Amino acid sequence: MSHPIIKDDEVDIVVAAIQPDLTSFMEEWRPIFCRFHLIIVKDPDLQKELIIPEGFNMDLYTKSDMDRVSTSILFTGYSCRYFGYLVSKKKYIVAVDDDCIPAKDGKGFLFDVVAQHISNLRLPATPFFFNTLYDPFQKGADFVRGYPFSLRNGVKCAISCGLWLNLADYDAPTQALKPGERNARYVDAVLTVPLKAMMPLSGINVAFNREVIGPALFPGLHLAGEGKQRWETVEDIWCGMCAKLVCDHLGLGVKSGVPYVWRNDRGDAIETLKKEWLGMKLMEEVVPFFQSVRLPRTAVVAEDCVLEIAAMVKEKLGPVDPLFGQAADAMVEWVRLWKAVESASPTPGA
Amino acid sequence: MSHPIIKDDEVDIVVAAIQPDLTSFMEEWRPIFCRFHLIIVKDPDLQKELIIPEGFNMDLYTKSDMDRVSTSILFTGYSCRYFGYLVSKKKYIVAVDDDCIPAKDGKGFLFDVVAQHISNLRLPATPFFFNTLYDPFQKGADFVRGYPFSLRNGVKCAISCGLWLNLADYDAPTQALKPGERNARYVDAVLTVPLKAMMPLSGINVAFNREVIGPALFPGLHLAGEGKQRWETVEDIWCGMCAKLVCDHLGLGVKSGVPYVWRNDRGDAIETLKKEWLGMKLMEEVVPFFQSVRLPRTAVVAEDCVLEIAAMVKEKLGPVDPLFGQAADAMVEWVRLWKAVESASPTPGA
């Protein structure tokens, strides 16, 4: 890839600290993260002191910061990263889970996750027509024959979903069924997920344009028995479904593909299976709902869209499971919070 | 990839002979094609005798065969391959343009285009929800977290669109603008193009399940000044838009990605540009039309769907350009022909 010119002050790296010792994580990422501002958010359930190596430009947020802005939003576990999204003042957010390290190419060079994500976000997306040669704006690629010329300008890309080498982002049943499976397939491509296609957005390795889609990335749906394992969580899946819907409605693009991160093993998938795996059941309700949602033309910014979706969730999914009603409430509260934080300190240049 | 067990008698390789000397083409493909039955269709405009090397199990079709079944369908140029689709009795068709040779991996081994296409067609497609790790049925892959379990069975895959190394499938303006550009990016992935996503299907390297989608692959839209160059043609783009619509309506899948073929240079893109490039203008009319089409529930097989689309083309696009009216007529005639050929000699085991 060709490196985009990234202004350091346009990017916040957000890290959710689920484990106390971030030393090896931060050292692995140092060559890539060192030039950017970091927002580290400590899981409010984590009792131990964080261990963070020196030499980073960073701000740390903990439970007391969260309690100051909201007592109703759940920021526990992986959801603490959303607090980082809320307090950031930057245009772009790049978020990586703390069990991931940079992936390396065959020669041992690091793939620059930040550069690739920002490139994905900076270059237009093409949600209205599928390009068979993947991202037409990438060096060496273009629009293939038959691609309508009127659609070749593309639209603004709002979200860039990265992927995972080694341990892929499977759910607990899949992981438990294939304990030895590791993802070794590096697919050197990024593509726009087409308009109206539903997708499972993963929060493990993701970047987005905070100015246009920030309010649509929130901690909404929490499973009752949810632990500290990605394969148990649905918060990112739920907010991803909402965010994709919002992007489709607002004419924004969502890309998926490179960059990859190297994801290390953590936890025991079989242990997870012993719990009732509610996420699986909920998703079956969620898909027909999202297929049916149409947002009104009056919803012209992400905040409006999230409130519209929340109202529909309350009405249509609320009776199915109380978790959906709680998710709807959390979405309304999130938009309130987002607006409050924005108005308290307006984004420079926004 | 893991090789599927391909029954030789399930596959027809269809080659449109646009140039008379097929010697080097056939010799390059011999290791892959030798076990299959070939249907070679000679461009009816081609005057010279075909030169075809010995040792293939093949049938040759020429202008006189075409004239016997239809005098109204245009089988000239690349469109002659459709005659091969019509007369085949096999379940699967694999079609490759005669300016393509097998692509090779880093060690000089040939990529087996037929095995990959048949694997794509045999394994289910997943049009209703996007899987970020590409084809979940491929070895070493699976459905990622958040993918609804009720959609993991997938649906039957009807079309497999392959890609091109070296000379990519660009239109004349793009090719003329970037005369030196060659596609060197081998992306080792195949994915299902999501439901309702429009796409530019290329006829250069394509395979399909003839039993379920055959009638939807037809020579319909012909540009007036259309030559013998792919970058000038729109017949495959047009029928691809129809075929994708039919697949979406019938709950069938369309995949895009591997296998690649190595595509050699042929023709002069700048020469093409001297003609009025009508295809560009037509596509702008075509996209809103296909966005608006809804097929009735009574259309339950591909033939029905094509007739429904033809009627809508006639009504809505006919007034825009007479070429669309002619395309609609050709579609109706194609379905008549398809049914006549089918009833004359029913497909064994169908």
TrEMBL record, chains A, B:
GO terms for cellular component: cytosol; Golgi apparatus; plasmodesma. Belongs to the RGP family. GO terms for molecular function: UDP-arabinopyranose mutase activity. It comes from Protea cynaroides. The lineage of its organism: Eukaryota, Viridiplantae, Streptophyta, Embryophyta, Tracheophyta. This is UDP-arabinopyranose mutase 5. Keywords: Cell wall biogenesis/degradation, Golgi apparatus. It is found in: Golgi apparatus. Pfam families: RGP. GO terms for biological process: cell wall organization; UDP-L-arabinose metabolic process. InterPro entries: RGP_fam (IPR037595).
